[in-house]
Task: inverse folding
């Protein structure tokens, strides 16, 4: 059996660029939600978001890269570079041939596509658009696979390069795909993660239309309240996280810092409704059970669960039911939290950001809290680590994701037995 380790972590997130700043934000329980500043949100139902304070040139991107890359690709490259540097890998030419990239995104280069359409059509006035008004790199924005291609080209990697797009589970599924790359012998190393930059008028309007996002604009800091009785919808976010994956035996042999290993991964689809969820949480519970079985762990071995915890009424109740169905009595004992309470919901990116949080929880012995929780929902009666982080030994962490279209994914990270 091929065991796969995480040896590098890179993060671009609201509240902190880089994994250290990101973890400081989470462990302090600090929220990064605010009124949208990247455009004027007046007139929209939801006017709050969790934005990254990101300066691409300060983050090391060249003016040419800034011009060519959409914001989501900028995020991905910066996070990938941090993960690569964190891993300490030094690659030979032969190793580059077996080095893959697996990235996820739910909505791709939304900002570039929308901005250029607005320019070319004179704000939608012209049916026949002026193709000469758009930037020469618009095709790269149209094709989501360009993100993986750009990351591969930057590091001169010659292995498989893939973009996974399964909505809000993309960030977990891209890491799961990378796991299978290594298990199947298609790659020895993979930069795996996800990136999304969806804070744009078209995205905000789309979620307004289905009333999924909060309309509580007067207090942005407390607008994201997963599992709280008064929750009123999710807060849109943005960001990226990329992990360095490699074979565990290789990581041990080279003396790498090992955050954790991937114990198991599973995904299911509920085949039920495009945006609705079954109240019993059946498909999510099936994904959890399969991931735990692959890990060869009993439910009482879990030290932490990173919840999807979007802050919508149907998701939080559905997810709570799934934990109870899959874990039984152990669901009442394991600490659970939603970091979306602090950094919002970055759609396809959030699953990878939450997996980065799981790796850091195992590495540091800190469980991040669910911020803004104060009112118990009788249907959400588990331990959601309200407001204040906890210190604990975490040897095993589970993260779950739920996406429109019925996608339900689960992944388990564990501390390798050799390091306990």
Result:
């Amino acid at each position: 059996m091929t065991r796969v380790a995480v040896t590098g972590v890179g993060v671009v997130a609201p509240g902190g660029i880089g994994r250290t700043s990101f973890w400081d934000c989470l462990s302090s329980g600090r929220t990064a939600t605010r009124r949208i500043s990247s455009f004027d949100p007046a007139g929209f139902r939801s006017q709050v978001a969790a934005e990254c304070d990101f300066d691409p040139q300060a983050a090391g991107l060249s003016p040419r890269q800034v011009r060519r890359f959409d914001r989501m690709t900028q995020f991905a490259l910066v996070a990938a570079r941090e993960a690569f540097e964190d891993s300490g890998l030094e690659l030979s030419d032969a190793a580059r041939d077996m080095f893959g990239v697996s990235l996820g995104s739910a909505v791709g280069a939304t900002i570039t596509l929308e901005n250029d359409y607005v320019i070319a059509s004179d704000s939608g006035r012209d049916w026949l658009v002026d193709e000469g008004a758009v930037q020469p790199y618009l095709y790269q924005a149209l094709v989501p696979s360009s993100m993986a291609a750009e990351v591969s080209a930057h590091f001169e990697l010659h292995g498989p390069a893939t973009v996974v797009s399964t909505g809000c589970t993309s960030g977990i599924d891209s890491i799961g795909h990378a796991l299978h790359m290594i298990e199947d012998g298609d790659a020895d190393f993979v930069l795996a993660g996800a990136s999304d930059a969806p804070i744009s008028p078209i995205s905000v309007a789309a979620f307004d239309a289905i009333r999924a996002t909060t309309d509580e604009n007067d207090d942005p800091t407390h607008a994201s309240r997963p599992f709280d009785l008064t929750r009123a919808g999710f807060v849109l976010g943005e960001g990226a996280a990329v992990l360095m994956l490699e074979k565990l035996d290789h990581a041990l042999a080279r003396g790498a810092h090992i955050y954790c290993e991937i114990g198991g991964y599973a995904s299911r689809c509920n085949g039920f409704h495009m945006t609705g969820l079954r109240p019993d949480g059946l498909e999510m519970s099936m994904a959890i059970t399969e991931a735990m079985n692959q890990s060869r762990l009993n439910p009482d071995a879990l030290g932490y669960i990173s919840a999807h915890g979007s802050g919508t009424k149907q998701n939080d109740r559905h997810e709570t039911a799934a934990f109870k169905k899959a874990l039984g009595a152990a669901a009442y004992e394991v600490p659970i939290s939603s970091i979306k309470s602090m950094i919002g919901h970055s759609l396809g990116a959030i699953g990878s950001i939450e997996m980065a949080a799981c790796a850091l929880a195992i590495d540091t012995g800190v469980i991040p809290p669910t911020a803004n929780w104060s009112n118990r929902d009788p249907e959400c009666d588990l331990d959601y680590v309200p407001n204040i982080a906890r210190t604990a030994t975490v040897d095993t962490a589970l993260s779950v994701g739920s996406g429109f279209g019925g996608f339900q994914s689960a992944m388990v990270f564990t501390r390798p037995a050799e390091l306990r």
In short: The longest helix spans residues 71-87. The first strand starts at residue 4 and ends at 13. Residues 4-109+144-415 form a domain with the Peroxisomal Thiolase; Chain A, domain 1 fold (CATH 3.40.47.10). The CA atoms of residues 101 and 150 lie 10 Å apart.
